[in-house]
Amino acid sequence: MAAQRSSSPLDRLLADPTRRDRITHVESVPARQGRRAGWPAWAPELLVQRLGAAGIEAPWTHQAAAAEHAHDGRSVIIATGTASGKSLAYLLPSVAAIYEEDERREGTVLYLAPTKALAADQLRALRALRLTRVRAATYDGDTPRDERAWVRQHANYVLTNPDMLHRSILPSHARWTSFLRRLRYVVIDEAHGYRGVFGSHVAQVLRRLRRVCARYGAEPTFILASATTSEPAATASRLTGVDVVAVHDDASPRGPATFALWEPPLTELRGERGAPVRRTATAEAGDLLADLVVEDVQTLAFVRSRRGAESVALGAKRALHEAAPELAGQVAAYRAGYLPEERRALEESLRSRSIIGLASTNALELGVDVSGLDAVVVCGWPGTRASLWQQAGRAGRSGQAALAVLVARDDPLDTFLVHHPEAIFGTPVEATVLDPDNPYVLEPHLCAAASEIPLTEADIELFGPSTTDLLPDLVRRGFLRRRPAGWYWTRRDKAADLADIRGAGGTPIQVVEATTGRLLGTVDEASAHTHVHEGAVYIHQGESYLVQTLDLDDSVALVESAAPDYSTTARDITDIRIVEQLRSTAWGEAMLCYGTVEVTRQVVAYQMRRLQTGEMLGEKPLELPPRTLRTRAVWWTLSEEQIEGLGDLDLAGSAHAAEHASIGLLPLFATCDRWDIGGVSTAVHPDTGLLTVFVYDGHEGGAGFAERGYVDAVEWLRATSDVIAACECESGCPSCIQSPKCGNGNDPLDKQGALVLLAELLHQAPDL
After folding, report:
1. DSSP for 480-527, written as a single string
2. Cα 403 to Cα 373: distance, rounded to the nearest angstrom
3. N- to C-terminal Cα separation, the chain
4. Is the pLDDT higher at 103 or at 316?
5. pLDDT tens, residue by residue, 196-253
6. What is the reported pTM?
7. 689: left (phi over 0), alpha (psi -120 to 50) or beta
């Protein structure tokens, strides 16, 4: 097996000498000794025995500390590394609540996971302990109707997700009376994933849960488990609305790990405006995955998009068909949009090692137990350091030596990071950004709460100060009715349907094979214009399809099997209008602003690029309706006098280049990636009359990313200038100022002009 070979997985990847220049840095993460604590005196004896039989002799000190906080009624977040045993920290007090000596005081536990796969995995682990008084069951969209009644009436440990809590449990809380009255603990697993719009929605769902519990006389303690994150206590308090204690000193042992930063080579091809083009990260990752499979190194390749995951798996299969055809069946793809039975089968194949190489979206970043992996390939910066370490930590979970490789995309942030390892290693992870007060988030949850139990003045403190302003507007629009006793839901339809907590918006588009009528998967409505437009290449489980028709009215995309040698990328045009300026600060004559904007975006064409090289093959027009988004943005302007002092400059190209680079660098300062945000730049914007560069949140109402950019603007924009200046290209490339999602084909762009504009902007910026 791979673990018994004399050379390391990294050495074997570098057996080809032409690859050695692709590694920009190797970080050795040393092994760490574990620190044990004693079992709490209150821990049920049977649980301790069963854990001992499973090889757990005693808890690590961080597990014991978190468990003690929870047992004493203090809400707690345990924010430690991957495979540090966070589940034991909530298992101890949860089982203790169920094993009360007085059975009449027996508590119940509600476990929330962001995915059904993680909840199912936790259920398997619970049942393996054979604790007869623990009646555990999942309650999700896959739970048969006849089983749901049993869960409501008999289960005392219910594993579900925020979606079911929002759409099913809370609206029908009267059917859960017995469970909610005794609710002792709410476990929130993978809490770092609740960020942006999704996290903001979940924060309001949890406030609704606390309100319903109070109705039945319960005040549950929250136990949150998270990857290492900055400000864990503050983030957890913002998510739950209650005071939370943090435990973040990781005392678990860890095997040695090697972490390599990998930059694909330049090719002879030239891209837009003659810029040099690197080999794509997906092609590089596919080759690495194939090589590791040949060496029997079980590897998980994390890819940022569904399409990318399919592409990496397809590339690995092609390479194996040439080098070792008998191994091609040991590679697969895993992503959201697959049918539940397909995902469960893939998870089991990974555990049994019948699959050696799996290309996955971050659907497998979470705590699904896939222990025994030898290596992880991260295809493109995943957006945050927290996510990077979470993904890398999937390897070596059994204590063996592990390999992690970050393969850079041709992108400003990826390029910056693989050449500045200090920005990854030894740097604290980010704080999680969420905004529960976003009116587009809060309004539908106020309606949902009113339909559950009429709202009263006493609820305003629970839901936040914005509630006072929103309630009259909801009454005026006919959603709520004001009576002396409070605010009541007035409609027959379900109030919970108003809030789409995943932030996708609209009815999902069903992807259907035209010749057979077979449902291949789904795409959220907001992504349909860019992913399943007419002519798009759609990949499902390694098979390629061409989209023949996108019917937005019927929410269906019809596809036909095909084998194109190219990928497709949508192009769009964007306009932006300032609705309200909320904050501003002067940097000399320059201005930095933050506020509400309205963005109108329309997909107008798509480009075709050759799969292995990225070579542009052509572009075709599309006729799709525009989409309008009201959101939050950060923007900066330069005065007319400042512009005049800069001399002859391509203002549009300079501002456009600065916009692209700043979008690329914002993820260093906010928990997002460049696909969560957008930008617009113009030499003269009609609302300001000045040269203006906008960066906006790509979610209705905002997600907190632009606000973080405003707060950290000096550091963010200086890093932007540094990236442009440090790039070795002459006039701009994807590693500095070109954007993969530019609606204008990266034209015009002026690299040197961007540096001039940013220097002028930062000239009188405040010192850090």
Report:
1. EEEETTEEEE--SS-GGGG--TTS--SPPEEEEETTT--EEEEE-HHH
2. 9
3. 52
4. 316
5. 788 889 999 999 999 999 999 999 999 999 877 778 999 999 999 999 999 999 999 8
6. 0.75
7. left
